[in-house]
Structure formats: structure tokens, C-alpha cells
Amino acid sequence: MPTRLTPESVVRTTCPYCGVGCQMNLHIRDGLIYRVSAPFDSAPNYGNLCVKGRFGTDFTTHPGRLKTPLIR
Length: 72
Prior knowledge:
N-terminal domain of TfIIb; mainly beta; 1 helix; 7% helix; 3-stranded antiparallel beta sheet
């Protein structure tokens, strides 16, 4: 049976790794990020991302990710 995919959505956001403020597009399908790209028209990165920005989105689905505060 073929898998039914929801339409792709693209969300523009700022990279969370450093203070430069690079813009990135997150391509989302079925609630998961499956591709990261950088817009060519946006400063300061103009279509380029560092290794962390391009490939560092795996933390969003990691099983050890904290989803609630650790404060009692």
C-alpha cells in the first residue's frame, strides 16, 4: 500500500546555533523536517549555511530530547 504524504510546507526561520542570524528554510512534510535550505535573497548568509545549520536538525526528533522543564 503506498504511503500518503501531506503537502510540503516551507517555514523560514533563523538558525539557532550561533549569533550570526543566518536565515534558513525548513521543508516540512508529515510533521518532520526533511530538508533544509538557505534563501539566496537573505542576509547575512545569501544561500549558504554552515555544517551545523545545514545538517543539525536531527535534534528535533532525537528520543533523548527534553520536552518538559526539569524544574519541580
